[in-house]
Amino acid sequence: MFKKLIEESTGKSPWLFHINAGSCNGCDIELVSVLTPRYDAERLGFKLAGTPRHADIVVVTGPVTQQSLNRVLRTIEQVPEPRCIVTMGSCPQSGNVFRGSYAIAGPLSKYVHVDVDVAGCTPKPEAVIDGLVKATEILREKRRAMK
Amino acid sequence: MFSLAFLQTALLYLGYILIFPGFLFCFVIGLLLCGIDRKAVARMQKRVGPPILQPFYDFFKLCGKETIVPAAANRTTFMLAPLVGLAALVVIQLFIPVFNFRVFRNLPEVADIIVILYLLLIPAVSVMLGGAATGSPYAGVGLSREMVTVLAVELPLVLVLLSVAKTVGNALGNGLVFSLSGIVDFQAAHGSLIGRVSMIPAALAMLLIIPGETGNHPFDAAEAETEICEGLLAEYSGAPLGIYKLSHAVKMLTLTSLFVALFLGGIGTGVEHLVAAIGLTGGFAAALSLILQVLILVLLCIVLTLVTISFVHAVTARLKIEQLFKYYWTVVTGLALISLVLAWYGY
Amino acid sequence: MMNVLSYQHFPIYAIMVLFLGAFLIVLFGKNKIARSCLALLSVTGSLALLVSLVPRVMLNGEIITYWMGNRAYAGGYAIGIALEVDALSLFFALLIAVAVFVSCVYSIRYMEHDDNIPQYYTLFLMLAGGVLGLVLSGDLFNMFIMVEILTFAAVALTAFRNTARGALEAAFKYLVVGSIGSTCILAGTIMLYAQVHTLNFAQLSALIPGHLNGSTRVAFALLFVGFSTKAFLVPFHPLAADAHGAAPASISVLISGVLTKSGIYGIIRLVYFLFQSMGLRPIQFMLVFVGSVSMFVCVTMALAQHDFKRLLAFHSISQIGYVLTAVGLSTALGISAGLYHAMNHTIFKGLLFLAAGAVLHETGTTDLDRLGGLSKRMPHTTVLFLIGAASISGIPPFNGFASKWLIYQAAYLRAVETGNIGYLLVTIIALVTSTLTLASFVKVSQSVFFGRLPEEFKDVKEVPFGMRFAMSLFAILCVLTGLLPDLVTKLLSGPAAQAVLNPIRYIAAARGIEMPVENAALPQAAGAWSPINWLLLLGIALFAITLVALLGKYDQVSENASGEKLPAKYDLFFSGEKSVYSQVGGGDLFWGFKHNWRHYFSFMHDLHSGVVNDYALWAVVALALAIAFLQIVL
């Protein structure tokens, strides 16, 4: 019963940690707008956490530049299990307009397993919320698979 | 010694500690207050807001997360500090009377208000030591701010408590009353202290102290998640973090019920007469009046949370630590001082 | 002829074994084992002799009067040299003996790498014997002699590690201002002798209250200032910081736990016995004022320190301020609370100094800005330090809280009794000071024992068992005296407070007249605090919560077990960077507080110039003020 309770709760209280991996700031602003009164992701339990240790879902924006690659990987490593990685916008998935640049190390999926991709430049808040909800379902699955 | 009566008493006290007004009560009502606060803030900001039960989900989720002990941390302190803080808070809750209900009805009182003032430091110290034990520089900054917050809040809180002790002592004609149950008894007989002129500034000061003591917005410089990554909690994850979140919620309950005991102690004490008036007697009536008193307490705590924590949260922005200190040592201390001077001259 | 083994001889034996030990160590101190045994034997002997007097003096209220060479009262004048041991003397003597004993145990391992160890033990025992002689003596001139012995032993010990930076300077400052203090005591003694032609304390106490004139008033001021120097009260506090900073930790224990107590003892004897002046409001005001100022000024000075031992030194005076304030309240509750706090201060400050010494022993520094993270290397010292820190900051259930709580009660009750708003202010200052003390020790915990471990201290080890054992003794006492406040009041501080309030018995005892003990009720506080019940509740709650947590797999944590190469997961969060050594410095940790008090702090900074001329000037000014004040009010 206790396990079930934890599993249920895991799906209902996902805390986000946002990593900017060289983004143009468009996605960052859209992510914040998801938490504003108009879309209010907090009604689903989403909350921005200040440190990766508290996070369940890591949201990565930006094309993962050479400079930021190690930092991104290090921070993702510091998030406790179960965790989900969500890429937001086209940059971390394909490199978008930066594709082929010498400064780009992406896409992110070359280095870590990405659970959810939210495409768009920038994705609409509705799409972001949809992606995050999908991520919470994956989170719940992962929790179920633990022990 | 190990007779049936002794066993019965022991079980009774275990029940007090574990169920009511101890651990289980604190757990449920504390998290409930926290949920109501979050919902209310959301509504004030025209949001839908999380479900009322959101803090419960958060807590259970954290219990299911991995706990990472950083390599630089001192493991024992890291793991023990949250538990000590929570236990200390639960014990404080035992000393706060629920109107006519006292845990230590038949025993000499364990702690008076000055002791409670100091017991309230233990959770703060435990979170500071736990944070410091991780070795994180964010925790270092958080520790500094948390300690300054404690310093800032302590002075007005002291003044409030002294003026309450003096007012009750004046009215009873025996100098000073430091005992919390004595203060509630007095209010049961003579009406709540909030009705006295001299106590109104103190009550206002106490209302402003509550968010500072719990570390709620706008006095949450110590846990500012946007600037110092949650400060002391920066390296905590999993169950210990959950316990800290729970302690924070319980602290809201402790302080609001302390406010009720100090200033509104007369409100719920007439319930017994009311129950007697409808013709009920015996164990059932006692149980009913206890339940009613607890309900009144919870209701008052909710109202106080809405007023002191949610409302203040919704309309203000976070203060810098210097501003916070200055605010408490001028405005709030001033209010408490007015009260103390009025009480001193017998108003 | 008294039997040589009868208990009347015990006080003089207790002093003699210490001095005897000192001289024997000079002779046989070359051998390491011999000198350790001799030192331990003499301090243990002294402690045992004093403890054996507890039932008679504390419980039965007996006052032991001992005349050297059996020259008792003759012709109405006390000619011989007397030792007079009442509950107050024995109370302080016990504190001293315990502190000396623990410090001696600690010294054996702590000092083993130093040079000139025989000289160290000789001076150590001289200091101990001097203080013990001071509190047991029944003769004003003998008190002065003991003051001289202890001052010079203390000065020499301050400069014992004279190769260290600042040691000689500290000793010099101490010598200059300490000599001013001793001179004051001598001058005061002479003036009293000129007036009433006796040096016996009891007889002086009988004569002086009827002999108040200009000279005796000046003598009062001189003695008060003299004993204040020994207690390092404001304005003599800068000396203590320098002396403690330079002296070995085991000596710091004696200077803070024992030497300052001798000053407090002298002041109590002066105001309650010699002049019996505590009924007068100006004298109460003087004590409470000096106490409160010391309490507050020194705690703020401590907040500004960068050095572990200097910080402790300022706290030491701050706590002495509590004691003096409580004693100045001149109620039974106040005196008993003050004496209780004096005892607790000896215990917890001893523990803290020993912990500082342990840190110094292993790392070679006490600089708060350089240390950090030692809890991983020195777990036992950390726990012991935390007990001491919790005690001094008044965290229940340790002893500091028990006595501070009594002091608040006493001060507030006094405020209500007299209707004097000044006492209310004192209560508030005391409460705020206590929180500032907590802040200070949070700072030390963060910057010495927690936080990051610097590279240079990677291989630090735990201190040897002998030192940990000594610290544990103090820690156990911290817990015991905190948990059993009623017992302590009944057995130790209560009888001593009764003795303070009954100078007539003391005077009569010297003439061989035994007055009945007035079984006055023990002082009662207004509030309630039963530490054992609270601890029981906390224990059950903690146990239950831990049990629930463990059932919920609380202890299943991920740790970096291999420890070789640090995986990113166990690294500290550093905004994504590889974590580097970074520690929030100890010196200026509470800038949020300091910013608001910046004018005060810069004023204090300018005032404490570190120039001995200034401090000597302060001493003279303090003396002038005391003389003027007493001439006007007494």
Q: Going across the major beta sheet of chain C, what is the strand order?
A: 1-2
Question: What is the number of helices of chain A?
Answer: 5
Give the helix proportion of chain A (percent range).
Answer: 25-40%
CATH topology group of chain A: Rossmann fold
CA-CA gap between termini of chain C: 44 Å
One letter per element, helices H and strands E, the order of chain A comes to HEHEEHEHEH
Shape summary of chain A: globular
SSE string of chain C, helices as H and strands as E: HHHEEHHHHHHHHHHHHHHHHHHEHHH
Query: How large is the radius of gyration of chain A?
Result: 15 Å
Provide the low-confidence segments of chain A as ranges.
none
Q: How would you classify the helix and strand content of chain C by structural class?
A: mainly alpha
The global form of chain C is globular
The level of helicity of chain C is 55-70%
The description of the largest β-sheet of chain C is: 2 strands, antiparallel
User: Strand-residue fraction of chain A?
Assistant: 5-15%
Oligomer: heterotrimer
Q: Name the biggest interface.
A: B-C, 90 and 82 residues
Residue stretches of chain C low in confidence (pLDDT < 50, at least 5 long) are none
Task: Tell me what the structure shows.
The complex is a heterotrimer of chains A (147), B (347) and C (634). Chain A has 147 residues and is α/β, with parallel strands linked by helices. Chain A has helices at 2-12, 26-35, 66-77, 91-94, 125-145, and strands at 15-20, 47-48, 57-61, 84-88, 116-118. Chain A has a single domain, classed as Rossmann fold (3-Layer(aba) Sandwich). Chain A contains five helices and five strands. A five-stranded parallel β-sheet of chain A has the order 2-1-3-4-5, sandwiched between helices. In chain A, α2 (26-35) packs across α5 (125-145). The radius of gyration of chain A is 15 Å and the shape is globular. Chain B has one domain (4-344). Chain B starts with a helix and ends with a helix. Chain C has a domain at 145-513 and 589-633. Chain C is 70% helix and 2% strand. Chains in contact: A-B, A-C, B-C. Chains B and C meet through α1, β1, α4, α5 and α6 of B and α15, α16, α17, α21 and β3 of C. β1 (67-68) of chain B pairs parallel with β3 (557-558) of chain C, so a sheet runs across the interface.
